[in-house]
Amino acid sequence: MAKQTLSSPVPSLAPEHISRVNTGLLQWYAQKQRDLPWRTTSDPYAVLVSEIMLQQTQVDRVLPKYQQFLTAFPTLEALAAAPTADVISVWVPLGYNRRAVSLQSIAQQVISRYAGRIPDTIDELLTLKGIGRYTAGAVACFAYRKQVATVDTNIRRVLHRLFLGLEHPEPKVNDAQMLTLAEQVLPPGEAYPWNQALMDLGATVCTSNNPLCMNCPLQTECIAYAEMSQHSLFPSGAVLRQLRKVAEKKPRYQAQPFTSSNRYFRGRIVDLLRSLPPEERLPLSTLGPLIKADFSSAQEDWLQKIVTGLVKDGLLDANEDGVKLP
DNA sequence: AACTCGGGGTG
DNA sequence: CACCCAGAGTT
């Protein structure tokens, strides 16, 4: 009985096609690669810092903070031993402040469980809370030159367009299948430049909404480009916007404006506490009016819930006297 | 599978 | 204003 425990098969790809794409993209990357500081270091710690920072955050915003962070916390040991409040403070304004706590936690996990050496295999990296499949692959490849595939949003989009066609109205493969595809097209011995090249192309040419197909070195090899060429709304940007619009299921608009969202006030609270002298606590009765002009006693439960959430994420230290950064 | 988690840049 | 982004953990 064939049970479907394994992931569904990936559409088969022509070896000649893969080879031409490999050659073309690597050649393009050799000429056009972006000059990024984490590409010139061999320090696994620096690579780890860059990868955590780059999660859901554009390169341009990470660049200055990457240098500042490494100056403040030059080594894994320095980061692990630092006051968490300092790590959270240096993190501004990258957002997703949990990542700051998580990054320090990873440093502490590496010291306690791996004798201070960041692991070089995906399986070991995945045992660290805060590292998922993408970051595990990125660290293994970019810090240790392991010949492994890894898939982020750029790579997912680029590989889909090159080998499967347009990702709209819906992707032709799921995440597990895309990882398998990425492994199948990985050029032997070239994992580092290949993975970097895919992300460079995705960030600068094969962008999400308005791809610059006219500048693409793989135009003649791209399934999606061929599909778009037959579309009445060609060029590419108009095609993608149209397909995305058609595919849109529900507006699922925000019922409330962002400035009244839970997320907004979490940010306000952390930002406020960053400006406080170290170890000084702020009573909730003071905190409420500071983050919300019309704060009333009826909203104490609401505030308490947000505080509890922040504590759970390791972003806040709360006791009966009030709250501060941990 | 769907939600949550920031914040700045862009058209 | 809407959408985007080198994801991961939780429910």
UniProtKB/TrEMBL annotation:
- All copies of domain HhH-GPD, residue ranges: 53-204
Judged by the first EC level, this protein's enzyme class is: hydrolase
Q: Which UniProt keywords apply?
A: 4Fe-4S, DNA damage, DNA repair, Glycosidase, Hydrolase, Iron, Iron-sulfur, Metal-binding
Q: Does this UniProt record's set of keywords contain Transmembrane?
A: no
For this protein, the record's Gene3D superfamilies field holds: Helix-hairpin-Helix base-excision DNA repair enzymes (C-terminal), Hypothetical protein, domain 2
Which GO biological process annotations does it have?
base-excision repair; mismatch repair
EC number(s) in its UniProt entry? 3.2.2.31
Q: Coiled-coil region(s) at which residues?
A: none
Q: Name one GO molecular function term.
A: oxidized purine DNA binding
What this protein needs as a cofactor is: [4Fe-4S] cluster
Pfam families linked: HHH, HhH-GPD
- Give the catalysed reaction(s), semicolon-separated: Hydrolyzes free adenine bases from 7,8-dihydro-8-oxoguanine:adenine mismatched double-stranded DNA, leaving an apurinic site
Report the sequence similarity comment from the record: Belongs to the Nth/MutY family.
Query: What is the name listed in the Swiss-Prot or TrEMBL entry for this protein?
Result: Adenine DNA glycosylase
